[in-house]
Amino acid sequence: MQGETKEKFGLLLGLVGIICFSLTLPTTSIAVEYFGTTVVGLGRTVVAAIIVALVLIVRKEKLPSLQQFKSLLIVAVGAVLGFPLLTSWAMESLPVSHGAVELALLPLATTGFAMLRAGEIPSLKFWFSSIIGSLAVVIYALHLGFGQLQFADLALLGAVIILGLSYAEGGRLSKELGSWQVIAWAIMIGAPFFIIPVLFSLSADMLNAPLYAWISFIYLAVVSQFLAYVAWYSGMAMGGIAKVSQIQYLQPFLMILFATLFLDENITLFTIVIALIVVFSVIVGKNAPVIQKETAVSEK
């Protein structure tokens, strides 16, 4: 696959991943009401681990190296433990639109860690588009009256930081280990530690949860925790971590759209205007040059 075609396909896979991720907060908001923070935050990984284990066994995948295992620990802490648990806790008290706005800071977090972990050097044009996109979502947050931070806000900000590191590390590792293998092994690393807390959090009342709550939990376990990461890490491996991370700017507005469809939250004209600004910043960022440190050194 040629470089330009590979990059475009990587961006497409990244978009598929973001669409899948955009349903995470709405489905979490639904599921956590009936199953609680621990079951939703950690139980999704236990369920995903069953599917992943079968895939790894059937494909006879070899174990990661020690160095790869260290990177997988970073992915597991962010994507498997921290983000699901923190967002599940936050969604008990915050509306989806609130969480969606704060998660819009993910592109900057991912890009920053990409520079540290993957050796990518974004251009000034790229940073300018990122700042414009971030300012847009900050203005949006202030307009909605979310200027005062609560403990749930701090949880979401913590989730952004550790998931940004996890995204960057997973995207870098995907180039050598394989995209789906990264999240698969991260799930297998985390799941054994989650079984006991999940078992202690189960109750008979959960069996009476409505069908839509069960569908939400299954979606979180199968799609949000595994399949979406396959598309996302594949996209970053093919299109570049920093460039593909720009697509994350669409995520808060896709979340709000899904929240409107499934949770009856309203979309205002101001939201649409901010969405257009953010989409423009994504387009600018997508076309901005991003080089590798190794390339920069060799050209000197």
Characterization of the model:
By secondary structure, the chain is mainly α. The chain has one domain (3-298). Helix content is 80%, strand content 2%. The chain contains 13 helices and 2 strands. The chain has helices spanning 3-21, 24-59, 66-90, 96-103, 106-117, 124-143, 151-177, 179-201, 211-239, 241-245, 251-263, 269-286, 293-298, and strands at residues 120-122, 290-292. A two-stranded antiparallel sheet has the order 1-2. α2 (24-59) packs across α8 (179-201) and α2 (24-59) crosses α9. The model is unreliable at 295-300 (pLDDT under 50).
Keywords:
80% helix, two-stranded antiparallel ribbon, mainly alpha, 13 helices, EmrE-like, 2 strands, EamA_dom
